[in-house]
Every structure is written in C-alpha cells, then in structure tokens.
Input
Amino acid sequence: MIALNFTQLKVRTVVNIFTYLTGTLCIVALSGHIPVVYPLLLLAAMGLSVYFDIRKIYIPRWLLTILSVVVLLYFAVQFDMQDLIGHIMEILFVLMGIKFLEHKEFRDYMQIYALALFVLAGLGLVTLGMAFVAYLLFFFILLCLALIFLTFYSQDPELELTNQTIRTMITKSLWIPVLAIPLSGLMFLILPRTSYPILTFLNRPDKARSGFTDNVRLGHVSDIQEDERIIFRVTMEKIDESLLYWRGITLDHFDGRSWKGTKKHYYSAAKGTTPVGKRIDQTIYLEPYENSSLFALDKPIHVEGRAVRKYDDLTFAMPSYIERRVRYTVFSIISDVVPEDNIDREKHLQLPRDLSPLIVSLAKTFTVKNDSEATIKKIIDHLNSDRYKYTLKGLPLTKNPMESFFFESPSGNCEYFASGMAVLLRVNSIPSRIVGGYRGGYYNEMGNYYLIPQKNAHVWVEAYIDGKGWVRFDPTPASYEAFTPAYKQGVFLKVQLFFDTINYYWYGIVLTYNLERQLSITRSIMSEIKKPSFSFAFLKSGFVRYTGIALVIIILIIAAWTFARSASPREIVVLDRFLKKLRALGYPKGEFEGLEEFTARIPDENIRRISLEFVRSFENIYYTDRPFMIEDLRRLEKIVENLDDAKGSNHGYDQKRPV
Output
C-alpha cells in the first residue's frame, strides 16, 4: 500500500481524495468512447472544485440547479436514439462536473459516486473487455473506502484522523472487496444464466474497423494495410506460414477500376467435391468491421455459428454487418485447389468493354496454345520480374489504373498484381476470380493462437484449370514475411502478447460463458458423480480444474478468517467463565461496574478474596498490553476453579447498581 505522508488529516480531506480519484477514474475509463470535450469538462470542473475548496468559494446551489436544468434541456433537444448510451454518458459527465462545483456535503458525495457508477455501467454497454473489469474493480475498492470514511464524515466533518488511524481504516476496509470479489466470481459460475440477452437495445455497436467490403477498388486496400489493429484471432495449431491465407470474399466482375461480387449461390454438395488435404480446426474471434463476411483459413468447408450463410465459392457471411465481436468455429482443408466440375465461364471471363488494346496485346504474348498452366506460369513470371515493385505509396490512381500499372508506373500493392493477373488470364480465355482476405499473421505462443492485424489485408487470384478446378495463385512479389509483423522479439512484444493473451482468454472464457456451457459443465460433474468410482475426470478441463481449485482455496481462506475473527481471545473466555461462576453463586456483575468495584461489593470474605486475586492478576496483564501466556491463562483458570471451594455465606449481597 502507498505510504501516507501525513500525520493528521481531516476526514473531509480524506473523503475528497477518494472522490477526486473516482472522477479521475471516470475520465480515464471513458476516454476514447465519448467526445474528448466531455472528459476535459469534467477535469476542468474538478480543478475548479479544488481551487474553490482552498479559497472557500461557494457557488449558490440554486445557480448550479438552473445550470443542470439548462444542460438537460440542451441534451434533450440534441438527443439521438442512434447513440442512446453515448448521449447518456455525456449527460452524466456534465452533471458530475456540476456536482463537483458545489459545496459538497454528505448527499453530494453520494450523488457523485452514484453518477460514477452509472458512467461505468454505461461503459459496460460499450465494451466488456478486461479494461472495463479493471476500472470496475478499482471503482469498487474506492467506493468501499469512501463509504467507510463518509460514515465518520456524517458524524463530524471536521474530525481529525491520525496517520495510523487512516492506515488501519483503509486496511480493514479493504477486506470488503477482497471477500466480495471472489464470492462474485463464484456467483457468476453457479447462478442460472439465460440464452436471451436483456436490454440489448441499449448496447452501442463497437467501433467498426475498415475492411473488405463487397468491392475492391484499386488503391483501396492500401488504406487497410497501414492499420496495425488486430482484425481477428484464431485458436489453432501452428502451421507453415506460407499456408496462412485467410479467405473472406470472392469477386468476379471487373469494370476497369474496381472488382465486385455478382450474385452468389448457396453451397450445394452437387456443385463440386470437397478439397483434399489436412483438416485444420479453428475457433475465430472476429472484431467488428464494415462488412458481413467471415474469415477462415483457406479452404473453409464448414462453419458453426448462428445464421451463418455458406456460399458455393467457399465463403461465409452473417445476415448483417458485424457490429460486435463474434466467435465462431470453422474447419478448413489445407489445399491450393477447390475442385469444381461446372462453372459459369461467361461470368469468370468478363472484361470491361473499354479494356486497353495495349493490355490485350501484352496478354497475348504469354499465350501457350492448348496449355493453360504454361500460360499461367509465364504471366506470374512476368509479374514477378524486376520490372515490377511492391509498394503502398504512389499507387497509379488514374482513369485507366491497369494500363498505368503495366506500362507507365509498374509498382503497386497486392490488388494491382492480382487484378493484373486476373485480367491477363481472362484475355487468354482462362476463367479467374479475385479472392480477398488476409495473409500471414503471427503466433502467440503463450495463448496458442494467431493474431491477424488489418495491415495483413491481401488479395490473390484463383484460376480455373480444366480437370482440377479453382487453383490459388499469388502473383504479388512480396513474400509472406511482408505480411508478418517485423517486431518478432523484444520486451515490448512480450508485454503486448501477455496483455493480449489475458484479453483473449477473457473474451474466450468469461464472455462466452453461457447457459449451454454451464449445463455442459454441470452434466460432466453429475456424470462423474454417478460413476461407482469417482475419478474427477471432469477436472481434466483446464478451466474447470483451476477455477475449482481456486474457488476451494478462496472459500477455505474466507472460512478460516471468519472463524478466527469471530472467535473470542482466550483471556476473554476465561474472564467470561469467572463472571458466569460468580453469577451462579448469586453475585451478578452490574452493567456499568468495574471489575474491582464489583468484587469489592461481594459480602462473602472468601469469595471476595479469591475474586480480587483473579481481577488483579487479570488487570496486571491486560492493562500493560502484555500478551496472555499459556501459564497466565492456566493460573487464572485455577483461580476460577478455587471459587467452587470457597466457603462462607453468599447472602446479603447488595444488589444495587450504580446510577
């Protein structure tokens, strides 16, 4: 715990510290989720509040009330249901700032904490990442501490607390979140869950990333290729990096400047045969982006997910744009070929009517009569020659970009090379199409999953070869290393991967923990219990095993701590036995009597003598802050036993109690 470098503080000052920390937490948590002007307004209000407190300046409450009403009316006029949560959080920020400007009393502090709670609840509707959990836990700890000090503040705002007192209060108060958080985790695991989300209309769509749309305009992909953010993560075994093609969309119509997909047909088993190769199972977590297509390792055969649409070109899509992180399972066949017997040749040989004659002449120079594979090889060799350069800058964005690429500025990125190859193939009567997706990625050894950033956006070509089917070709001269992040080593990467692993498992385990998984775990446990020999086989699941062990340890610690706290010290137990013994002899102690005063009033001389011996022995240890040793306790217990042997009258005891 951070050392407190003060000797004495007023409880008002301590409460203010926790209140300003709460406001700062809200600013940090919501930055990036609402316009920056609102966090800045709250920060300015907090700064003014500190200044007003120091100068003893108090703004009239009626003036701040009018300001609050004006703010609410302004937001009511500007209100937009498309971003309900965003506007509510903006209102809360402004109202919190106004509350900071008031001369704060008990109710004002409570209102600030309530507003902060609503702000963080709104953040939970925007994102449920690990950062949100960290902010919420920190707020919970601050709130617990603040409420304890507010209790003292309500009795005496000017109460002064010493360094040691503050330390003790904070230490004791921290037991509340320490015990509550593990119990909340236990409740999360065992409470019944519903498959139907409640109040989902309040959720604001995640910020979508740019990505492949239904068309690819020449020069467009370069914008994506400069984005370092992660677009999806894939749990799967590590494979050769040259095989990392992530299929997303296919495009078959070219107008000279852009490619787009024509009408697709749903998958039919009769349309072709399944590719031959090694099967790779994947669990994919796709971030929101500006399209509905799902990505998977080339060639995806099956996707498990709600309402997923499967097309005959081995692409998959959701019914609407992906506005939230989605999780789906897919298995793919590692192969360069998609077997297909019958294709729409006219559609895959389409060319723009105004295609440059220069391009047609160039394409004819690669023709190998009656040998499409040889023609393809000559086209790839040409595009991979020293004449052409891979670049993301200075792309030929003219009215005839393909002609500029071939004859004027032979440099470009993947969509220029892929488009060039597809056009040259079609001129040579070889059906072709563009495939859009991602290339490469890097493997997180800690979490055993791939991370694919936006910058790995890529397009390649599939050419139809009679007797084989659709065969993948990648004419882009940049090798796969160009699509793998350069920072492969170093402390920075390790730290980044560590936090990404935490976030990954948070989404993969906690946020996907639903009724189905809850029932599955319960069934596993019950099936093991029913077996004659209980083997705990269900604990082979890493998540269940470690969660179960952690919960058992937490429960045992809580039980031991509770028992230890509730158990009375042994010296108090002995004292209670002493008083109980005297009460049985007819000498009850008065509620407000001291021990010596009480024993001095006992009329029986023997009992009074033995009692005084006990009291003086007890007080000699208790009031000198010396711990009671085993020998001390035994001697006191012996004295209590001597009361049974005391003789004399036990009548005439003065039962009067001091007033």
About this structure: The longest helix spans residues 130-155.
